[in-house]
Amino acid sequence: MDNTITTCSFFLSTLTLVLSLLVPTSYSLSSSSSSLSLENFIQCLSNHYSPPSHPASHAIYTPKNSSFLSILHMHTYNNRFSSPTAPKPLAIVTSLHESHVQGTIICAKNHGLQIRIRSGGHDTEGLSYVSDVPFIILDMFHHDSVNVDIKNETAWVEAGATLGKVYYYIAKKSNVHAFPAGVCPTVGTGGHFSGGGYGNLLRKFGLTVDNIIDAKIVDVNGNILDRKSMGEDLFWAIRGGGGASFGVILSWKIKLVSVTPKVTVFRVQRSVEKDATNIVYKWQKIASKLDENLFLRTTFDVVNDTQKGKKNVNVTFIGMFLGLTNKLMPLLNESLPELGLKRSDCIEIPWVNSTLYWYNYPNGTKLEVLLDVPKEPLLSNYKTMSDYVKKPISRNGLESIWEFMIKSDRVRMEWNPYGGKMDEISESETPFPHRKGNLFLIEYLTSWGEDGVEARNRYLNISRSFYKFMTPHVSNSPRATFFNYRDLNIGANIPSNTIKLDIARSYGIKYYQGNYERLVSVKSRVDPDNFFRYEQSIPPFH
Length: 542
Ligand SMILES: Cc1cc2nc3c(=O)[nH]c(=O)nc-3n(C[C@H](O)[C@H](O)[C@H](O)COP(=O)(O)OP(=O)(O)OC[C@H]3O[C@@H](n4cnc5c(N)ncnc54)[C@H](O)[C@@H]3O)c2cc1C
Ligand SMILES: *[C@@H]1O[C@H](CO)[C@@H](O)[C@H](O)[C@H]1NC(C)=O
Ligand SMILES: *[C@@H]1O[C@H](CO)[C@@H](O)[C@H](O)[C@H]1NC(C)=O
Ligand SMILES: *[C@@H]1O[C@H](CO)[C@@H](O)[C@H](O)[C@H]1NC(C)=O
Ligand SMILES: *[C@@H]1O[C@H](CO)[C@@H](O)[C@H](O)[C@H]1NC(C)=O
Ligand SMILES: *[C@@H]1O[C@H](CO)[C@@H](O)[C@H](O)[C@H]1NC(C)=O
Ligand SMILES: *[C@@H]1O[C@H](CO)[C@@H](O)[C@H](O)[C@H]1NC(C)=O
Ligand SMILES: *[C@@H]1O[C@H](CO)[C@@H](O)[C@H](O)[C@H]1NC(C)=O
Ligand SMILES: *[C@@H]1O[C@H](CO)[C@@H](O)[C@H](O)[C@H]1NC(C)=O
Hints:
Layout: H1 7-14, H2 32-48, E1 60-61, H3 68-74, E2 91-94, H4 98-110, E3 114-118, E4 135-139, E5 146-149, E6 154-158, H5 163-173, E7 177-178, H6 189-194, H7 202-205, E8 212-218, E9 224-225, H8 227-230, H9 232-237, E10 248-255, E11 257-258, E12 263-271, H10 276-286, E13 294-305, E14 310-321, H11 325-335, E15 347-349, H12 351-358, E16 381-389, H13 395-408, E17 411-417, H14 421-424, E18 440-448, H15 453-469, H16 501-512, H17 516-526
Parallel strand pairs: 2-4, 3-4
Antiparallel strand pairs: 1-2, 5-6, 6-10, 7-11, 8-9, 8-10, 12-14, 12-15, 13-14, 13-17, 16-18, 17-18
GO molecular function, one term: FAD binding
Pfam families: BBE, FAD_binding_4
Protein name: FAD-binding PCMH-type domain-containing protein
């Protein structure tokens, strides 16, 4: 596997299995009152939400169950939040039936417990499985069916289904249909879709949420609602505002999109020591204006130049073109001849194969890997942050960035071009506001293998320093942030305290800009007592 970093393969290639080291010796409930609440919670669920076909006892794990830790860690994708000292839930409900979801909400509410909702567990700040208050995890991974209706070009997808599963079952029915969502197959649709969701079909088809046509959600009163019964404002809010402020998503109805029988992919690497700075400078100007069938991502890695014995930055250009090489070549020849793409760099494959290619799987990997959910996920410690860029960064600016990266040695970046369909959709169509005028989205990644607080602080500091360093180059007033790359540095409430509205506003504006107020008003209608809350949830009016 090479050194490139699609968001996901970056994690895949640098991680080590450390799960076996994480067995804590004992648990203690934070107080006798939460112990009593837990008992009452379990009674409530077992007595009232336990249909004979799906007994609640088959779904409830407490630290007394021997498989508690393996269930907890089955979907924890960031070791920063799964160390022995990380806060643990009082219980995990691995829902097997809609009634378990309803019961978890009602019983937790009645007994004063907070819940964390988890689908794929990829939250970049671990917010689906850690909290500083006594809490229950509602784990949705058993709700993972994908039903494709190819005649109507739609599918119902349950919240616990992974992206890989969605891609696999679409491809089983058709090689000219696809769905625009993220590159990492293990990401869950529960969090990914409700947070916006994007991948390499973004320039042609927009975000995931631009292609959702219905949903089923359980509200704070335990009612199961669909688009019609929840109303358009709640349906609007859960397509980009984050599901966990509003209820528990059970499933989504998605609109499939059409792709060519074969698409063209390529991956070429250039060094900033040679010509990459020029190519990147030009890329900034044209990547969001290219034919919308072409998505050209760039990633930036610090590498060792073995000959010269010093460090350097390599830039990888990863392309996805909805069409064949014959059509792609003249496009790039005209817009970015500096890249020097060769016909032999290009590979023509069915769309579903391109999902494997983008994830860095070797040629010949069976499509069934899209269905794999690692029993024990690969773990590392990592921190992500994000920015939007509206004006090209100057050549000097770029060079100073490479210098900073080399000095820090730990920051990697991924730049994702916008434009195309993204320019055509209004900022208020969904809660996701970063539409026309954005050239590209930056994701920053810092990861480390060392355990312990000292290493963590050191790397988090590097990550923050880089973010600060980037200030003059990126969007401001507000500095925009992508919700799915959740980042607690931009402001966060503490769940055990009263929600501070000014803090909520500060992260809310960065994530949602002008849509924040509308999210607050939807929240006030559907969950006025703020049961569905976490560090960066939408607060109700008060
Ligand atoms: C390796 C990796 C690759 C990624 N690649 C991409 C990418 O290509 N494109 C992109 O847009 N993003 C990407 N992301 C970000 C990803 O989309 C978000 O982290 C997303 O929230 C993950 O969804 P999940 O269900 O896996 O996570 P979870 O951790 O389960 O949930 C994330 C958030 O959603 C809430 N939530 C989860 N399920 C539900 C539900 N059923 N109802 C209500 N709320 C719910 C959780 O409470 C939490 O707040 C990536 C993240 C990682 C770690
Ligand atoms: C966890 O342990 C309890 C008590 O022994 C048991 O009733 C329950 O069925 C166990 N949970 C699961 C999911 O097996
Ligand atoms: C598919 O579309 C047809 C025509 O619009 C409609 O009658 C039918 O109910 C749809 N099927 C499903 C399963 O939604
Ligand atoms: C960096 O890119 C150059 C191509 O310009 C390549 O020759 C070199 O192997 C790359 N280095 C690494 C470590 O990938
Ligand atoms: C670069 O070389 C140094 C020293 O030899 C080594 O510690 C480091 O891991 C290497 N980095 C990469 C990205 O290969
Ligand atoms: C690229 O453009 C140049 C100049 O217009 C032309 O001579 C050349 O044939 C083109 N190459 C391809 C592969 O289209
Ligand atoms: C994959 O490998 C096979 C031979 O093993 C080769 O024929 C094919 O062209 C390769 N496909 C791609 C996309 O590289
Ligand atoms: C697509 O991937 C599958 C699984 O690796 C492989 O069998 C098939 O040959 C690939 N198709 C093409 C055209 O490369
Ligand atoms: C954080 O990084 C900055 C800049 O690199 C440095 O000056 C500062 O001492 C670091 N702080 C800590 C706590 O490591």
